[in-house]
Amino acid sequence: MRRVAGATLFGLGLLCVVAAAALAWLIVPALSQVPYDLKPPDVVVMAPNAKFVSARLLANGEPRIAVESGTLRSMTGVKPDYQAAADLTGDLAGNTLIWNVYQATDWVDEQVPINRAESRIALDRKSGAAVPWEGQCYNDVKVTKQDATTCEPGNIEYSGQLYLFPFGTEKTTYQYFDGTLRKALPMQYRGDDDVAGMPTYRFEQTVPQQEIEADDETLAGLIGFLAPKAKSATMNYEASRTLWVEPMTGAIVAYREQQHRQLVPDTGAPIDILDATFTYDQATADAIVKQAKDGRSQLLLYGRYLPIGLLVGGLLAIVAGLMITRRVAPPKEHAPAHAAEPEPSTVPQG
Fold this sequence. Notes:
α1 runs antiparallel to α4 (282-326). 23% of the residues are buried. The chain is 26% helix and 40% strand. It folds into two domains: 2-24 and 303-326; 32-280, no CATH class. The chain has helices spanning 2-31, 82-86, 216-226, 282-326; strands at residues 43-57, 63-80, 96-107, 112-124, 129-130, 137-141, 160-161, 174-178, 183-195, 198-212, 233-246, 251-265, 271-280. It is of the alpha+beta class. It contains four helices and 13 strands. The mean pLDDT is 83.
């Protein structure tokens, strides 16, 4: 029985070691990528006490462009395109998400739309970064008139991080996409912080003031209403962003973005047309934190606690099995049924 028990423990130990290796090398890598069926929560950022330009039609049909003050609400929604992802070929096949992204910014106090936009983007499932894809596009939808424009494939080149950071985010500098400049700029690791009981990495990006392009129609409208004495104008832009990233999942669990834009007419002082600081609303913060905590718990369970437990338990079982097997006593030699009688002595009797 001891031999059987020892062999059973030894086999069980080997099975535990193999299971630990399978978790570490097969299961965890599968968990460390964004699932195709993941529907990210809608992200809402709020900017109280903001200054911004509102363009709208009055009751009499007349257009009105003015600098307003109030609370801005910007919502970003994602709809994964499973079929487009499944149709990808080459290096993108099996490694890439296709997301349709919708954005809406509103003046909360007056329930007036400020901006609408739509885009399509390809993201790497592990790094969360944008990857080259011929179908990526961006469309700024007009809110003051009927707009039949569509998102034209190939009219933008996304790169760097946008909505996600890599699984296993590192303390380094990443490239983060700026939607106004339409290019990725460095975002640097600046320290460790605790957010909602989770360890996070804090990243910061600064976009220095610079002149940006504006289409002629928009610029003419701004000049006509805000600087009627000017003959021409340019537009300045600057921004700063701070992101708190849960490093195991790459989730952006806290967010702050400051944007400042100015109309600079050829006569008179610059005019602020956007001055706002955006942060997550409470519902968004709660949803993203919950998602990050769930993902972190899964990765810790299958990537650390279970493999370590299985490995330690397996090694103990192997050692115990070997010790039990070695302690089994060797079989005894049996004496013959009748002992041989001694041979007669040849010594003479006295």
